[in-house]
Structure formats: C-alpha cells, structure tokens
Amino acid sequence: MQASGGTKIVIEPVTRVEGHGKVTILMDEAGHVARARFHVVEFRGFERFIQGRPYWEMPVAVQRLCGICPVSHHLCAAKAVDRIVGGENLTPTAEKMRRLMHYGQTYQSHALHFFHLASPDLLFGFGSDVASRHVLGVAAMHPELARQGILMRKYGQEVIKATAGKKIHGTGAIPGGINKNLSLAERDELLADLDQNRAWSLAAVKIARDYTLAHIDTLAGFGSFPSNHVCLVRQDGAMDLYDGGLRAVDAEGQVIFDHVAPETYLDHIAEEVRPWSYMKFPFLKALGPENGWYRVGPLSRVSACDFIDTPLAESERKVFKEVSGGKPSPVTMAYHWARMIELLHAIEKIDELLHDPDLQGEDLVVEGTRRSEGIAIIEAPRGTLFHHYRVNEDDQVVMANLIVSTTSNNEPMNRAVESVARQYLDGQTITEGLLNHIEVAIRAYDPCLSCATHALGQMPLAVELVDASGAVIDRRTRG
User: Fold this and answer.
1) How many Å apart are CA 421 and CA 70, to the nearest integer?
2) Which residues of 251-290 are buried (b: 16+ CB within 10 A; e: fewer)?
3) Which pairing describes strands 173-174 and 269-272: parallel, antiparallel, or unpaired?
4) Is the pTM higher than 0.85?
5) Phi and psi dihedrals of 169, rounded to 5?
6) Residue 183: pLDDT above 80?
C-alpha cells in the first residue's frame, strides 16, 4: 500500500475468493485514517485451467468456481457456448426453462443473503452483542422470520432442481438449448407453494423498506456515495436478469451507453490491475479508470432500469426511486431494499412462467453455424456477469475471460470500507463495533466472499491498523 508518507505494506495471498477478507487501515502521523483497503486476495485461475478443455464442458465446469450462485455461471457459460454452436436463438421451451432456472436461483440467493446473513445486523443493530448477532440469534428471537427464510430458500432450490436436474451444479442448460422440459407434476408441485412464497416476499420487501426509511438519515452517511451503475436492460428498458443489452448510467441517472450488445463489451469496459490485489478493477472506457468505476447488483438494476415488468415489484420500485429523487440511489445499505424488490420480482416471474404451456414443449435444442468465439452477459444475484470464450478448430477453449459481479464491485467496496473506517475509527484502538460496521458495509454488496464464509457463522475478517511508519499497532481477526 502506498500512502502519502510512502509507507508500503505487503499483503500475502492466503485466502480464496470466497474464503477470507482483509482490511488494512493506514494512519497518518496525526492519527487520522489516511487510507483503508479491502483485500480479496483472490487467485481463481479458472480462465487458465479450462484452456484446452472442449467448449461444451464450460456450462458444467465453470460453475464449479462458485458454490453460492453456480446457476448464474452455468447459464452464462451456456449462453456463450450457444453462440459458438450458432444456437443463440433458443426455442421458446429452452429459453423459458432457463429463465425459470435463473429466477429460482435469484430467489433462493436473495433469501439466503437477507434472512441468513444480513438480517442480524438489521434486527439487532450494528453494534449489538456478537454472541447473538447471527442466524441462530435470529432463530431464537424471531423464529417465524427465520423459518420463512429457510423455506423461501428451499423453494428457490426446488425450482432449480426441477429445471437443472439438481439443486447445486445442475446440467440443465446445454449448447443450443436445454436437456429437459418441466413436467406437469413438477409444475403442480411448485405451484402448490407459490402463493405462500409471494406473501412472504411482500413481507420481506416491507421489512427492508421500513428499515431503510426509518434509518435513512444514518444510512445516507454510512459508506454511501454517488457512483456510476451498470446492468442489463431489455430493449424497452425493463429490468431483465437473463438477457438484454448493457446499460451504464452516471450518478444523476444520465445514460453513458445503452443497449450495448454483449459481443462488444470490450469496446466499453476495461479492467485495471493494481499491485496490491489479485482482483481486477473494471471501469468504463469512456470515463477512464479514475472516474469510470461503477456498481452492479440490485441497487444498480433497480436504479437504472426504466421499469419492472411485474406489477408488485414495479410498485415497490416506484417507491424506491421516489426516495432517491428519481436518481440512482447512492445509499449502500439500500442494496438490501433493492434486493428484496428483486426477490418479489423473481417470485412473480416464476408464477408467470409456471402458467406458460411452453414449458411442457418438446423442442429443446437448436443448431446453427459454428463460430470460434462466444460472449454472454447475465445478471447474477450479485450483479452483472460476463463470460467470454475463444475456441480453436479442435473445439478446445484457448481463451477465457470472466468478469464476476464481486470484481465489478471491487472499487465501491473499497470506498465503502474507507468511508466507514473514517467515520467510526476511534483513536488507535479497533473496537468490536468498528469491526462489525466494516462487515456491514461489505455485506451490503453480498460478495461471494461474504456468502461463503459468513454461512459458517462468522466472516473471517482481519483488520490491521498501521501507523505512519508502517508498523502494525493493532490487529483484530474473526473467523
């Protein structure tokens, strides 16, 4: 880390992308925070070790890089491979089965994060007793809420199982289509629990909305800042989590680019490498690395789309946009509210699809003219996900580039950590309250790191306090 005083701290890469986080705070000679950084010392390596593998393995192989949202990688890889086999114009049955799978993934992932990981902070407070600030504490104090969270996630997993073959690391999407339709028995089983899940989703939106509005004065200053936003939108500007064109807006909501085809993403987005992290820093080429960083995920999608094409979620989106004055919300903690709006949208789309007879169709796969390159973008629960592959004449992958949502949120998460550190660091002693406030700011983004580690009970987070000479004067760890 380079600070104004020239102090350099070397960080060793000891963790996996979903395993550990590290925050380093650099103090100046006056005892003020000079710099704070959130380190995900990630070395994923998938782009390299899938080289040489046949392209048709990608939808199954690449999803192994994530145990939290493998469906998103499964579908994004499948969409990219569709283009390689010339099968991007899917049959109605294939596209709707994939969409159903994706909304099931979004539903279970958002329920998991909100009820299991974030709710202890919202229900008990950021500085509450760490002994009860976890999902078991929620179960003890709010047993019905904890039960709802478990059953909502279970429902999403059942949707995935019915469309992908199994709940984790399924095989439903294949090049040019899908390997099964939805039987009437599977449809009826999912319909049986639909109304209850819709009611629970409405209640979850109310919890997130009421919390945000009740604490808006505090949250507006908690790791919040204006930013650019990137997401997919449908041709008519509607939110679309599965397909569409890429849109970028600035902090005022002004369009930077719109309806960009996935195949041209490299004309608009670049990645910066910094020496202190294995994770890259994507930025908008038009604005450069200094001003072109952006946020992705629920906050960006709800802020940047023109409307949501399901009535209940659209009604909630209008309230969300009204609070932010029609502009993209700068409030980091509003990610939770936006996430619950998407949860509601997902169950509405599941309802819509389950009543569509195309899901029982028999035309599952299309073929076309082979290409040597495939690029696809999808909206994973945590944000925009890019998959890019090139293949040789022997059908082997020779190049792969994956930009995951946590990578796009790298710069915003670092800014949130620094903002919270400046606001809450008291002298040179790191308190439990500081530790949890930093975790709360990171957790709002729902990074893969948070999901993988906090699910075990605590987020393995290390915070170091370094003086102007570079000496570590305090260190606290969890996990």
Assistant:
1) 33
2) eeeeebbeebebeebeebbbbeeeeebbbbbbbbeeeebe
3) unpaired
4) yes
5) 60, 50
6) yes
Which one, of 326, 243, 256, 242, lies nearest residue 294 by Cα?
256
Could you tell me which of 256, 275, 205, 402 has the C-alpha nearest to residue 11? 275
Predicted confidence at residue 4, as pLDDT, reads: 44
What's the token pair of residue 22? 């590290």
Q: What percent of the chain has pLDDT over 90?
A: 63
**Single-letter amino acid, residue 180:** K
Cβ partners under 8 Å of residue 321, min gap 6: 302, 303
- DSSP class of residue 252? T
Residue 3 has pLDDT above 60, yes or no: no
Q: Tell me which of 86-95, 312-321, 350-359, 402-411 is least confident.
A: 402-411
pLDDT at 293 over 70: yes
Strand partners, 246: 232, 260
Predicted confidence at residue 54, as pLDDT, reads 97
* DSSP-assigned letter for residue 65: G
pLDDT of residue 18: 47
Tokens of 365: 């796969």
Confidence check: pLDDT of 50 > 60: yes
How far apart CA 6 and CA 2 sit, in angstroms, is 6
Within a 10 A sphere around the Cβ of 291, how many other Cβ atoms?
A: 12
CA 183 from chain centre, in angstroms, equals 31
Residue with tokens 């899908």: 178
Local structure of 279: helix, strand or coil: coil
Where does 179-251 have alpha helices with state H?
184-192, 194-214, 216-219
Instruction: Specify whether the CB–CB gap between 43 and 18 falls below 8 A.
Output: no
The label of the residue with tokens 């899901």 reads: 359
104 touches 159 (CB < 8 A) = yes
Tell me the one-letter amino acid at 40. Answer: V
The pLDDT value recorded for residue 14 is 24
The pLDDT of residue 430 is: 64
Q: Please identify which residue in the block is written with the tokens 């040789």.
A: 392
